[in-house]
Amino acid sequence: MARPGSLMPLMVISLASLVFLCGSRQVEARGCIKGAAVGAVAGHVAGHHGVVGAVAGCAVGHHLAKKQQREQRQQQRQAAQAPQAVQPPGSPSGQAPQ
């Protein structure tokens, strides 16, 4: 059986590989790196499961980033569909004459 200390380099290499893999496709992996970092720390604290935490954090971070991007697109569509304010003729600033 391997000593617990001998698994640390393997975990570090695995985590670094995950980060580089996620970072190589930034368009598709938006949110993964931040989520992986947070998940690795949480997994390590919760019982030395840093790699599992990093994978889960990557998945959650990617999901939240896609959700945020979807909401931004929806807001942009609504802003584009909103009617523009029409100024009455003869009113330079759009205020009603007094």
Q: Which features would summarize this protein structure in a list?
A:
98 residues, mainly alpha
Tally of individual helices = 3
**Helix residue percentage:** 55-70%
Count of strand segments: 0
Q: How much of the residues is beta strand, in percent?
A: under 5%
Describe the structure.
With 98 residues, the chain is mainly alpha-helical. Helix content is 63%, strand content 0%. It has three helices and no strands. The longest helix is centred in the last third of the chain and has 32 residues, at 50-81. It starts with 7 loop residues before the first helix and ends in a 17-residue tail after the last helix. The model has no long low-confidence stretch (mean pLDDT 76).
